[in-house]
């Protein structure tokens, strides 16, 4: 089967339930993601189409802390992992590229840009296809309400 047809048959992306472990900087976080059935794995997720300052650069610590504060209230997240034309996961330096969102559709990749804690990719920098971008609440997680809501203070 042609690789392009195989990718279309497999879908251009896969969605996974995820739990946050911690963030390295403003565009990379360690998460435990659900791979189907009872399978979970720890992955370093590089946020698609977001370039945040490195920790040693001006604004780097602030960007990371802001991302941690934004993600921390959510017990459960969704990671959308775009696929290449051959059906494999997109990667950047061994990190899995992904869109990170809440089950209700808040996309943190874009939130960080809107809040000026990171920027969009420049010409020539790796980027994820915009057609894979989440654009609404996510139906995959039909879990009890306490999994989808913010933690209470």
Note down, in words, how this protein is organized:
The chain is α+β, with helices and mostly antiparallel strands and 153 residues long. The protein has a single domain (3-138), classed as OB fold (Dihydrolipoamide Acetyltransferase, E2P), CATH 2.40.50. The protein has helices at residues 3-10, 60-71, 108-114, 145-148; strands at 13-25, 28-36, 39-47, 77-82, 91-92, 95-101. A hairpin with a 2-residue loop joins strand 1 and strand 2.
| Whole-angstrom Rg | 15 Å
Number of spatially distinct domains = 1
Poorly predicted regions? 1-10, 140-153
CATH architecture designation: Beta Barrel
State the CATH topology: OB fold (Dihydrolipoamide Acetyltransferase, E2P)
Hey, roughly how much beta strand do the residues contain? 25-35%
CATH structural class: Mainly Beta
Please state the average pLDDT score. Answer: 77
Oligomer classification: single chain
Overall geometric form: globular
Secondary-structure element order, N to C:
HEEEHEEEHH
Label this structure with key terms.
6 strands, 153 residues, disordered C terminus, disordered N terminus, alpha+beta, globular, OB fold (Dihydrolipoamide Acetyltransferase, E2P), 4 helices
Topology:
Elements (H helix, E strand, L loop, with lengths): L2 H8 L2 E13 L2 E9 L2 E9 L12 H12 L5 E6 L8 E2 L2 E7 L6 H7 L30 H4 L5
Parallel strand pairs: 3-6
Antiparallel strand pairs: 1-2, 1-4, 2-3, 4-6, 5-6
What does this entry show, briefly?
The chain has 153 residues and is α+β, with helices and mostly antiparallel strands.
């Amino acid at each position: 089967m042609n690789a392009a047809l195989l990718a279309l048959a497999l879908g251009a992306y896969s969605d996974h339930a995820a739990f946050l472990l911690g963030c390295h900087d403003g565009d990379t976080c360690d998460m435990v993601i659900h791979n189907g059935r009872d399978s979970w794995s720890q992955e370093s997720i590089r946020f698609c189409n977001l370039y945040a300052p490195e920790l040693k650069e001006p604004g780097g610590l602030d960007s990371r802390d802001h991302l941690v504060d934004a993600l921390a209230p959510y017990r459960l997240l969704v990671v959308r992992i775009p696929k290449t034309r051959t059906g494999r996961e997109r990667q950047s330096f061994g990190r899995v590229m992904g869109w990170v969102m809440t089950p209700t559709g808040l996309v943190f990749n874009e939130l960080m840009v809107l809040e000026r804690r990171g920027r969009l990719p420049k010409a020539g920098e790796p980027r994820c296809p915009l057609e894979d971008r989440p654009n609404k609440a996510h139906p995959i997680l039909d879990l009890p309400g306490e999994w989808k809501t913010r933690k209470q203070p």
